[in-house]
Amino acid sequence: MIDRRIPTWHDFAPLMQFKKPELDPKKRRLDTALTIEDLRRIAKRRTPKAAFDYTEGAAEGEISLARARQAFSDIEFHPSILRDVSRVDTSVEVLGGRSALPFGIAPTGFTRMMQTEGERAGAAAAGAAGIPFSLSTMGTTSIEDVKATNPDGRNWFQLYMWKDRDRSMALVDRAAKAGYDTLLVTVDVPVAGARLRDKRNGFSIPPQLTPATVVNALPRPAWWINFLTTEALSFATLDRWSGTVAELLDTMFDPTVNFDDLAWIKSQWPGKLVVKGVQNLADAKRLADMGVDGIVLSNHGGRQLDRAPIPFHLLPKVVAEVGNDTEVHIDTGIMNGADIVASLALGAKFTLIGRAYLYGLMAGGREGVDRTIEILRGEIERTMRLLGVTNVAELEPGHVTQLARLVPLSAAATHVAAR
């Protein structure tokens, strides 16, 4: 038999603790984001379709991007127990300097199209977090303004080699004079990939108003108010352009660039040089033999050659071959701090985030980028603790198994024949 009684006010009082309401709508919005996917959903609500799809989309059928993200899902962690993980150190030494976290912000183009604060928000957030910020050749904030925004942090400059070599190297010279410590030479864009979302949306610089874009803009007035009441959108490193993104890329980029050109660039740059867009072991070996300081395994976020190799799958082989000679970094598909931890365990020295950063930017400007970094930091620390490691150096291949989903047909046939 249960004895019952009439509850008193003292019984109710502990249950009536109401949370103090947050009056700042931006902070309230960002506080609800617990994952990068949450930031993505907020970004989609707040950003016109053409600009959001430029960030979200990839080439052709977007298979490369889907496979890259799936590869991070297809892992198994192997934790150790009964370790003292009360303190965790997430810092790493990368390219001759310290980063408080094992990731930096990747170079992104047309960034102020996504949200008007653009690269300034990314550079300021990176500086505050103690991580590198990368400015793209196709950025919408100047080399000098990014430096002014992040004067004491690590700024990297990403170079596309144009057909006009003198203009390209003028940018390199500006970056060196501004104190950028690393040059990222992107080598996987001899021509623009077929980014079908952009074509279907008529994505252009500057935006072209159509009945469809007007209708899409109506529920997103904040974006348009910011766009129309701040400085006109322009590129930081080239003259104004009026046309589609693909037309711009095909006009600028040089399909004749080769290893000799890369060696020439290396001879001109006084800082660290990293080659971004490496997609096979042979190229990684050749670059290591050239003496580059680092390579980034990347398929350009799936935005160039669809069905390109998955960087995360390439990682163990490349690290085994060249990891002692050059730093191996990785990007493409990273949406969780656990993705970063898995990459580090398999030998990556560093990682870069692109879309994850832009989702935060679109969701809330500078504060949104801060929230991206905060989410990833928490996920990294939690994953490391649950694995039983206290610093990045303790991560090793035994902590991760890459589960097989895509197996080459020849290998599968050999396996069947052997049974």
Arrangement of strands in the largest sheet: 4-13-12-11-10-7-6-5
Shape: globular
Task: Let me know the largest β-sheet.
Answer: 8 strands, parallel
**Beta-strand fraction estimate:** 5-15%
Which architecture would the CATH scheme give at its second level? Alpha-Beta Barrel
Strand segment tally: 14
Taken together, the total number of domains comes to 1
CATH topology group = TIM Barrel
Name of the level-1 CATH class: Alpha Beta
Task: Note the gap between the termini.
Answer: 65 Å
- The CATH homologous superfamily is named Aldolase class I
Helical content band: 40-55%
Structural class: alpha/beta
Instruction: Provide the residue-averaged pLDDT.
Output: 90
Task: Tell me the number of helical segments per DSSP (H or I, 4 or more residues long).
Answer: 19
Tell me the Rg in angstroms: 23 Å
The poorly predicted ranges are: none
Structure description:
Helix 7 (118-129) packs across helix 8 (143-149). The protein starts with 8 loop residues before the first helix and ends with a helix. It has 419 residues and is an alpha/beta fold. It contains 19 helices and 14 strands. The protein is globular and about 85 Å long. The longest helix has 33 residues, at 355-387. The model has no long low-confidence stretch (mean pLDDT 90). The strands form 4 sheets. It has an 8-stranded parallel beta sheet. Strands 1-14 form a two-stranded antiparallel sheet. Strands 2-3 form a two-stranded antiparallel sheet. The chain has one domain (30-279, 286-402): Aldolase class I (TIM Barrel). Helix content is 46%, strand content 12%.
